[in-house]
C-alpha cells in the first residue's frame, strides 16, 4: 500500500480520534511582494490550500491573485495542492490571498508502534528512502549524529526515540522570532541554540532520520489558543511540525511539545521546507523591496 501523500507504507498509526470534539476553522493567509519598479513577468506557485485527509476536511478553499491572473491547480510529487499562475503584464506588486474553511479532529489515539526490527527491514528503507536521507536543511554534524545514536540506543522502540528527539530539541533550542531566516539549516540553528518552528522541525527531522526512522516535515497552520472562543478572529501563524513512520505516521509538534490535534491544519509535507514553501516563483524586473505575510484564524465552532 502507499500513503496518500506519497509512496510510503500506510499502516494506520491511529485507532480513533482522541477525547474532545473537532473544530471548524476559517483561515485567511495573505502574502505578497512590492518591487522597486515595474516587473515585466513572473511565474509563481502557491502551496496554501489545506489538504483533506482522515484528521481534517477542507470544506471550502480559494486562492486569489492580484493583479488578476489565470491559474490552475495540480497535486505535486509530495501530495500538496499547488496553485500555479503567471503574470505577463507590468506590475509593481503581487498579492496572494488564500482562504479556507477546515474541520479538524483532536489528536488520535495511537496504535502500538512497530519495533526496531520492523523498521530495519530493507523494504522500509527502500519505500521510505526519501524520508531517511539528509537534505541541505536537515543534515547534522558529528555531535548531533552521536546524540541521535544515543537516543536510539536508549529507546525501547522507534516512537519512544522520536518523542525523545522532539523533547530534547524543545529543551535545547530557544524559540526566538527573527533569530534565523528561511535558508537556515538545522545545524546552524543548533549552533545558535535559537530558531523558529521551521528550525526546530528541521532539527527534529534530522535527528529522527539519523536514528534510521523515516521522518517528514509538515507545513500548515496553528491556532495559537488551546481554549479558543468561537467567533473570535485571532492572529495565527504558518507553522511547521514533524511526522515519523513507526508502523504508521505519527504527528507531533516539537515547538509546542504537543501531539498534532484540532488546532493544527495540514497544507503539505515533504523532506524539508524547500518542498512546501507557501509561495515561490521567479520574475524579471527590479528587486523586491518588501514582503509581507499575515495569517488570520477564526474558530467557527
Word description of this protein:
With 301 residues, the chain is α+β, with helices and mostly antiparallel strands. It has two domains: 14-18 and 110-275, C8orf32 fold, CATH 3.10.620.30; 23-105 and 279-299, Immunoglobulin-like. The protein is built from six helices and 18 strands. It has a five-stranded antiparallel beta sheet, with no helix packed on it. A five-stranded antiparallel beta sheet has the order 15-14-13-11-16, covered by helices on one side. Strands 5-6-3-17 form a four-stranded antiparallel beta sheet, with no helix packed on it. A hairpin with a 4-residue loop joins strand 14 (249-253) and strand 15. The chain is globular.
Helix content: 10-25%
User: Do you know the CATH architecture of the largest domain?
Assistant: Roll
**What can be said about the biggest beta sheet?**
5 strands, antiparallel
Estimated structural class: alpha+beta
**Beginning-to-end CA distance, first to last residue:** 35 Å
User: C-alpha Rg, in Å?
Assistant: 19 Å
Mean pLDDT: 93
Elements, N to C (H/E): EEEEEEEEHHHHEHEHEEEEEEEE
Overall number of structural domains: 2
Strand order of the largest sheet: 4-7-2-18-12
The CATH class of the largest domain, by name, is Alpha Beta
Find the count of extended strands (DSSP E, 2+ residues).
Answer: 18
Which stretches are low in confidence, meaning pLDDT under 50 for 5 or more residues running?
A: 1-12
How large is the share of residues in beta strands? 35-45%
Overall shape: globular
Number of helical segments?
6
| CATH topology (level 3) name of the largest domain | C8orf32 fold
